[in-house]
Each structure stands twice: as C-alpha cells, then as structure tokens.
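This section describes the prediction task in plain terms. A model, or a person checking by hand, is given the sequence of a single protein chain and must write out its three-dimensional structure as a string of tokens. No templates, partner chains or ligands are provided. The sample shown here is typical of the held-out split.
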Amino acid sequence: MRHVPVLLDEVLAHLAPRPGGRYVDATINGGGHTRALLDASAPDGRVLGIDRDPDILAALRARLADAIDAGRLEIANASFAALGDVLAAHEVAAVDGVLFDLGVSSFHLDASGRGFSFLRDEPLDMRFDPTDSERETAADILASRDAAELTAIFRTYGEERFASRIARTVVARRRVAPLRSTGELLAAVEQSLPPHARWRASRDAARIFQALRIAANDELEAVAAALPQAVAALVPGGRLVVISFHSLEDRLVKHFFRDQQHAGRLRILTKRPLQPGAEEVAANPRAASAKLRAAEKIEPRMNTDDHG
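The expected answer:
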C-alpha cells in the first residue's frame, strides 16, 4: 500500500533537515516522511525510525532497504513512549529533529484486519502491536469495564454525546454474548441512538471506535510521556514537529509547547497549527483533520551571577 505523507512540505520546512543531520521519525509508518528526510539530509544525514507495529516495519524494511543497507536508516520496533530508551539502545546521544505523526494509519484502517474501522467486519483487536499479549484488545475492554467506565472512555476519548446510552447497550448485549467483532459493536451503537439520530450512526460509531483505539493503546499517555523525552534529546536549535488528527492530541501538544516556551526550553514556530490546503485534502481526504505544530529548542541560558 502506498503511503501518502501528510503535510510533507510543512514538515520539511519546519524540521529543516540538512546534510549530516540526525533525525528521529517517531512514527515511521509507511516511511514517506522518512524518505523525504533522508533525501533532504543527503548524502550523510541519518534517521532513526520507530513504530509499534511489527507488520508495518516488515514491509518498511523492504521498501527502504537501500537506506538501511547504506547505514543511513535504523529501525526500532518500540513505542515512542520509550523514546529515551530507544535512543540509548541505538547509541544516539542527541538529534537535530524529531517528528511525530500521531494517530492511526491508513494501513491500520484498510489492511490490518484488527478492527480499526467499522467499514469491514473484523475482530475487535485495535492494538498497534498485536504481539503485545500484556495489552488488552478493544474486545477485552468492552467485556471487562462496567457501564460507568465505558461511558468515561467513550466521552473522554471520543467526545461522544450518547456515551452513556451506548455503554449501557454494550453491557446489556454482552450479557447475551460478548462483543467480538466490528459489526457487533456497530450494531450496539446503532441500537443505542434515539430514532432521530440513527441516520448519522456512522459519525457516532467513528467516535466510539476512536475512543476504544485510544484506550487500547494508551495513546494520549504515550504522547505525554514522549514529548519531554524528545525535547531532552534535541540539540540547541533542534526542531520538534508534531502532526495530530483530533482535538485531544492537538490540545495536549499545544499546552506542552506553551509550557515549555514559558519555561525557556522551546520557542514555538507555529503561532497557529498548520493545516492541509484544499489540494492536499482533495488528493488525500484523510489529511483533512491534520494539524501541525512545531517548536525549536532554545540554547540554555548561563547563570551570570555578577558580584562585582
């Protein structure tokens, strides 16, 4: 599957890759951003690409074999929540830029078979790393949480107005049989909605699926853990670029950048988030909700105690 990198020109403009630079693509996915970083930092720039999904990385190793063989690209199967440990394992002390392209990928929605989309009837897994036996699947969450807990997940992570109704329906339906497939969850959502709202059930379902995916992968917690590690890894003048796809992510990044700027660690480069233009959205409709924020690490100030 061809990977279409979102906001590619804006990413390159704000990361400003240069020959000899060292960069981290913390969400390498299909490698579109990484390929552009490698090209822009040629002949000797290097990239460390990170992804939680072993299936994505297996395909990527073939797609970017030339860069791997040349020693310009290293790949790590890990969560970016452990960014500092990944950098240490690859003996990377400091980097010139870090990119996060958050959220779910087209591969997950279209080809993973793990239930990220209700457009196909698939098992409700939703884990980015299906080999991680310690992490609950979406089906596990639906089976083990009470109505109040499910309501909180649907309302907090999905911003779903019928969260309580849907949670109660899930609990009632699982007394008969556990919800194990996307079709069963979609039916529960449709059943929960008042008659006047059922014509737009797909919108509510999208929010419920988003909420379960975020919960299954601890996505917001991972972002909150990774951002300070990214700042710590940057050289002075290094750049941090984050692309988010929903308000919860964007709000987290916005507040982090603001707090880091107030603390004198970062200088915000994007007063407002950058969004795709009409031409990019027409070519890649999934880019429509993308927002890019960028910041630059500030040279630490020296203590200048003047005692005469």
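For orientation: The domain at 8-107+219-297 is CATH 3.40.50.150 (Rossmann fold).
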